[in-house]
Amino acid sequence: MPAERFQFTGSEGQQLAAALDTPEGDIRAYALFAHCFTCGKDVLAAKRIAVALAAKGIAVLRFDFTGLGSSEGDFANSTFSSNVADLVHAADHLRETRQAPAILIGHSLGGAAILAAATQIPDARAVVTIAAPSDPAHVTGLFADRIEDIRRHGKAEVALAGRPFTITNQFLDDIAEHGLMTHVAKLHKALLVMHAPTDDAVSIDNATRIFVAAKHPKSFVSLAGADHLLSDRRDAAYVADVVAAWVTRYLDSAASEETADLGEAPRQVVVRETRNSKFQQIVSIGPHRLLADEPVPAGGEDTGPGPYDFVLASLGACTSMTMRLYADRKSLPLARTTVTLSHRKIHAEDCAECETRAGMLDQIDMVIAMEGALDAEQRKRLMEIADKCPVHRTLTSEIRILTRAAD
Known about the structure:
Strand order of the largest sheet: 1-2-4-3-5-6-9-10
Structural class: alpha/beta
Number of helices: 12
Distance between the termini: 22 Å
Number of strands: 15
Low-confidence stretches: 253-264
CATH architecture of the largest domain: 3-Layer(aba) Sandwich
């Protein structure tokens, strides 16, 4: 679903440009996203993470700070403090027009700003930092060779990411005054620190300082192999996957209770195009949100499993669950089951036991590994039970599919 574009009033009266990415179905929670220094709301990392979280039922507000992107104001007049104030105003806007943000997410310097703003956003229950510095003054390393000029003349133009920006004494003074670790120690919210060990822009030591300063509950996730800007689409998708799963523990218990009984009755599966790419679909199953796509060689962007992947996953899950039910009922020492599946086309003439004698057939290869002190007879029986799972029976029996146009 395309992001909703609008403006809201920032801390100093300027109109700030914002985008709200919302799910196709029910909204589990709202999140506020702060982007990196001199970036904008549409920087790839921010946009990809927001879109992926929306696909998982989390609406995400991202906006351009003062003087950046399509927002009003002069960047030269902005400071770290004004960015923090703008984040608080963005949260206020969400609270007034939709729902207060339960999740705060910040990337790079945006992560530091989120930590500083979190205590002023009481509704937020979970905070996520991605490649964030432990000291906002870390950003001055990007223009260390110009600091003397800034101090001498009161301001200077510096090149950042190939673009000119004016940095003032006011910015340097303001950023030097922030004791970010004091904010972290008083956070009183769940914290997830995400950082790449090989980040060459903001070292992993920054994540260590943030994590040590924070009180529990706190978690750390390594973004192994990722660069600072999460330029690889797969890294942004991984961040969204982890955040969506982690934050569930800290959302309102009322929301969990509301969806707790959805599994008791058969649930509809709704699949809808996102139009974010050629093949990407959002799959809604009760409270669950998944992405479906095709792999790159097939013309997709591989943002989610393909249709046959879902078929194999369904068969594999059903097989493992059926074996577990039987093993528990018979008190068999089955410690863990692992089912590995693949799909391919074969020539009918190569299948002696198949009824079809010409053309091509679908074949699913399924390998089952069983852990535990099982004897040969128990393993044999469990393998027999594996082929009795309901999905297996559905796939190997006559299936009737009725298709009609929506009213």
